[in-house]
What we know:
CATH class of the largest domain: Alpha Beta
Oligomer: single chain
Strand order of the largest sheet: 1-10-19-18-17-16-15-14-11-12-13
Largest sheet: 11 strands, mixed
CATH topology of the largest domain: UDP-N-acetylmuramoyl-L-alanine:D-glutamate ligase
Shape: elongated
Number of strands: 19
Helix content: 25-40%
Low-confidence stretches: 115-139, 510-534
Distance between the termini: 14 Å
Strand content: 5-15%
Region (Disordered): 110-135
InterPro entries: CARKD, Nnr, Ribokinase-like, YjeF_N_dom, YjeF_N_dom_sf
Binding site for AMP: 438-442, 469
Binding site for (6S)-NADPHX: 62-66, 159-165, 170, 189, 289, 352, 401, 470
Number of domains: 2
Cofactor: Mg(2+); K(+)
Amino acid sequence: MRDAYSVAKVRAAEAALMSIVPDGALMQRAAAGLASVCAGxxxxxxxxxxxxxxxxxxxxxxxxxxxxxAGERLARRGASVTVIQAGPRLHAxxxxxxxxxxxxxxxxxxxxxxxxxxxxxxxxDLPGTGQANGGGHDIGYEVRSxxxxxxxxxxxxxxxxxxxxxxxxxxxxxxxxxxxxxxxxVAADLPSxxxxxxxxxxxxxxxxxxxxxxxxxxxxxxxxxxxxHAGVVELVDIGLGPFLDKPPDARAPQAGDIAELIPxxxxxSDKYRRGVLGLLVGSDRYTGAAxxxxxxxxxxxxxxxxxxxxxxxxAAVRQVHPEVVITELSGAGGPRFPQDVGRVxxxxxxxxMGTDEEAARRLAAVLATSLPVLVDADGLTLIASHxxxxxxxxPTLLTPHAGELGxxxxxxxxxxxxxxxxxxxxxxxxxxxxxxxxxxxTVVAPPGGIDPVLVNTTGTPWLATAGTGDxxxxxxxxLLAQGxxxxxxxxxxxxxxxxxARLAAAGGSADGxxxxxxxxxxxxxxxDGAAGDGDxxxxxxxxxxxDVIRALPRAFRLA
Length: 559
């Protein structure tokens, strides 16, 4: 489990630890870890530390101090270290230590520095940036030259207390680094310009290949869009653990955590003990939704699946899944619903069911039961227009994408994407439900907004295709029917769903240690478009929702 703590909790833990250790000890621990990671990267990418060119983008605070002391350690190992001083001052001790080790400092003044001249950065061709400003000579050319020839760039501009996008000259320095070919960018603690708590990126920000974070993970390192700026995250232990106020604010389960959660049949299991799932999905128009949700449920471990749908969808499902027990609907007539369906232990309602008044009546009937209910797709649209349906006393799992959550909350979907954690928590509180917000990083907010948010990172961009959400709904519903609690069922389903997609996209040959963090043979992703740790589009192929279903058994075996 990767636990992440808010800035406030990190600050409190740092203060408690600093009260019992010598002055500067925490910064030295952080610097040692940062330097160690950078040295390993230089050996892997440039073949050496001695003679390698390292550029440090340094701000005025302790984050800059961490980077400066790390630069001192690299300089003493023979690296050529240059500091680009982005503000009016540097961390005094770090600056002295670095220059004593042979490093050099180039000052870049802030825009309101009255003592600085302002040479032009003409020729940089960096859209959306301003000017970097210099002090007394052509610092613009010198900065470009140093950054452009670097083997490794350390981002020490802002720490975890920063908010909003980068201002000048930080924004231009970040853009220069981002446009440098061949240099690895390493962020100290957090990429400058991203929000540590929310994961929001509200303007220009550093895009790192690697982030070396200190003491604990921060929520923004787990959640997009900030996570996309962080690259591979390495955690350096500086002794904060005993001082962090539990519980964490966010948690990212790993393979071992999921393996412990997955329900496993025993010798005494039968189809009822393994869980019976009811599916209110599909229609004569949307037969695919019924097929895909059913496929996810059948391969999710439920002992029995009972499908309630219309005749055309029912016929399609019978051809593929003869083991499913089907109740056919027919307009306003047909069986009493849900009384005549038979015994179920959880419901999935929504995918392809339609949004007319009859659909609303059936959804309301499901929500009126005392059973766990997962609501997706059309069901979410109905709730947005029939707000009285929620909250309910029984367990409820909502599985929206950003557009659907925007409709539920009356929020701009773009803002939901930008602040995923915040909006998922808000919806969980407002609707009295567990909310699984689908996306590049799936966020699971437990009901009530008190327990840690769970974050899944196994997804792949290849999942952005029609029908994959229906598969996820069926899979999560099957886990609910087996007795799992809402947050655990949601995060387990998201993990297995993402892993199955990666396996399908890779032709079934994805490495079971896909989540490993080993330097040997690493390929870098992101700024140069190369393959990388976490880049599951390179070396893989497009997939459809049915491919995800077929890969689910292998995902269960690997978990």
